[in-house]
Amino acid sequence: MSLSPSSPLSSAPHSSSVPAPRARDNLIARLRAAGCVFAEDEAALLLAAATDQAELDRLTDRRVAGIPLEHVLGWAEFHGQRILVDDGVFVPRRRTEFLVDLAAGRWLADRAAEAVPRAAVVVDLCCGSGALGAVVAGLLRSSGVELHAADIDPAAVRCARRNLAPLGGQLYEGDLYAALPVGLRNRVDLLLVNAPYVPTAAIGLMPPEAREHESPVALDGGSDGLAVLRRVLAGAGDWLAVGGRLLVETSEAQATELIAAVSAAGLAGEAVHSEEHDVTVVLATRPAHR
């Protein structure tokens, strides 16, 4: 987790049950020795989470053992929201905030001329914690959202249910579109997908926090990283409404091949790159006639 002193995460208050000055100094030293780059910020978060010294020790032991901070805390900050994240579940990355902003922005721009914008039908596919669906639902709350999410990993579905059920979201477990109810065919306005796109051979180059503590199914995109995304693109046209958009996160190097796959699926494709987030999003829109 990349934190800065101005981050809401790093400004969390200390627990009143922990002797702050001494505990904080000892904690920072332990975290720094374990290789935590943002030791001061992480210390503030752990102190805020602990109700007593015993709990602080337990949380710290997990963190210095290499468990991702988000799994230690049980939540991650994403687009200003606190998203619950269980052990083993993919931690939402800050770069993916670009995808949700793009999705919500395009939908709102399309609806600007409508006196009473209709509710968007949103599907968070390969949902992990459900972070994308949760944030987009918040961004579109003025017009309403019919929210659905699915993942092949049972642990991810359980986690996403905790984040999305309070928003009225429906959760499904299964392999891509096979998990979705048939009633969603030809109805989806926004299909949000953060599927794995790391080539199998590159998994070993990922930080240990990811490759050792997140589900492999959330990371491994096959030999060229595009195995799952090709399947997503091939089937999207059967689920999107006319004018509906699929948005997938990918790398800039993979975008050209994905745009070709979009065209092969009878959809209109566009790649949008963010220098700020260092990420590329491929959009696929269902035309009136395919």
From TrEMBL:
It comes from the Bacteria. The keyword Protein biosynthesis does not apply. One of its GO terms (biological process) is methylation. Transmembrane segments: none annotated. Residues 1-20 are annotated as: Disordered. Residues 118-198 form the Methyltransferase small domain. The keyword Methyltransferase applies. Keywords: Methyltransferase, Transferase. GO terms for molecular function: methyltransferase activity. NCBIfam families: PrmC_rel_meth. This is Modification methylase, HemK family. It comes from Pseudofrankia inefficax (strain DSM 45817 / CECT 9037 / DDB 130130 / EuI1c) (Frankia inefficax). The lineage of its organism: Bacteria, Bacillati, Actinomycetota, Actinomycetes, Frankiales.
